[in-house]
Design goal:
single chain; TIM Barrel; 2 domains; 8-stranded parallel sheet; 3-stranded antiparallel sheet; globular
Length: 373
């Protein structure tokens, strides 16, 4: 435990980084995958399960929580940690991405964004100052600046306008955050798929000396090679001794390749969403339990896995649960997927410690390619 927010870079293997973030609520081992708890819950999982699988931190969503049950209500109930029975670190996003992707009739200007809730049409205004206020009411340990995320492909003009607005909002967010001992605010690098705009954003934000930096505006429709090229463009312009967070990413291969490029933190709904739709991630690659070929297969997903869901339930039974729409199927596959993601992150951390990340990546990809059926 620490009474302040610090990041220690412990080892490297190529550009891959092994580190640790210390917070008053516990340490975060990096590279880290943060399960997404959008509305104060990692869907289909108990908090204790999420922790036991190796998660040091989860993500909460400002947009969803401000609409329901409301940030002031969460604060009155003791904050998000107490409300969701998760005493460990929580990162909250700013709400900006969801406003752009979910809200109705939004209007953006220098002040902020005015929008209608996708739930009931009620009108709300989200500014950098209000986003920080909401995140403070939630009580999160890592809070994100408000930014504007542009979906790709987009014109250079639109990307540059959003990037520059996000820089101005970063300054306002930092001022509104103030001094919160033991907590941190992360800036968000924008610039779409335009290298010089990414560099301009990263350089300006580095000059503001934030405790951590995120790369935003990726995994929004561009191919993986473009995403990786942008990470490689941005990384040299970010402070070495500050954590780097790639927002909303991704597949196991995305995680592996992004760590290779120097990223420390990730979040994505993919493992939980896939589990609810019958898709399992394993060390043998993806297994679609909806396929009829699994109907008579007595094998578990992976008999060598330490995860009970992975090791003790047959593919035939999982197939049956998925085809029947049973909640247990969603729970077991989500459990399996999060277990695999955390096992993958632990493997990467150990490989960096031993300075054999390239070998680990090659071995992992070979297992995915080989499969098991």
């Amino acid at each position: 435990m620490s009474d302040s927010f610090t990041f220690t870079l412990k080892a490297t293997s190529g550009e891959a980084r092994l580190g640790e973030i210390a917070t008053p609520r516990g340490s975060i081992r990096t590279p880290a995958f943060m399960p997404v708890g959008t509305a104060g819950t990692v869907k289909a999982m108990y908090p204790g399960q999420v922790r036991d699988l190796g998660a040091d931190i989860v993500l909460g969503n400002t947009y969803h929580l401000m609409l329901r049950p409301g940030a002031e209500r969460v604060a009155s109930l003791g904050g998000l940690h107490r409300m969701m029975n998760w005493p460990h670190p929580i990162l909250t996003d700013s709400g900006g991405f969801q406003v752009m992707s979910l809200a109705k009739l939004r209007k953006l200007d220098e002040h902020g964004v005015t929008f209608q809730s996708h739930l009931d049409g009620s009108r709300h205004v989200l500014t950098p100052e209000r986003s920080m206020e909401i995140q403070d009411l939630l009580g999160s340990d890592i809070q994100m600046q408000l930014d504007e995320c542009v979906r790709l492909p987009a014109s250079r003009e639109d990307i540059e306008r959003a990037m520059l607005l996000s820089l101005r909002w970063a300054e306002r967010s930092r001022k509104a955050f103030g001094g919160k001992p033991g907590r941190a605010i992360f800036a968000i690098v924008q610039g779409g798929d335009v290298p010089d705009l990414r560099i301009e954003s990263a350089t300006a934000l580095a000059g503001m000396d934030f405790p951590g930096y995120a790369v935003g505006g990726l995994a929004v429709g561009e191919p993986q090679d473009v995403m990786l090229a942008m990470i490689e463009t941005v990384a040299p312009h970010l402070p070495t001794r500050k954590p780097r967070y790639l927002m909303g990413v991704g597949t196991p291969d995305d995680l592996l390749e992004s760590v290779r490029c120097g990223i420390d933190m990730f979040d994505c709904v993919m493992p939980t969403r896939a589990g609810r739709h019958g898709l399992a991630y394993t060390r043998f690659g993806k297994v679609n339990l909806r396929n009829a070929k699994h109907a008579d297969d007595p094998r578990p997903l992976d008999e060598a896995s330490p995860c009970e869901a992975t090791r003790t339930y047959s593919r035939a039974y999982l197939h049956h649960l998925v085809k029947s729409g049973e909640i247990l199927g969603m729970m077991l596959l989500t459990w399996n997927n999060l277990a695999y993601y955390q096992t993958l992150m632990a493997g990467m951390r150990e490989a960096i410690r031993l300075d054999r990340f390239a070998d680990f990546a090659a071995e992992t990809k070979a297992d995915w390619e080989r499969g098991d059926a």
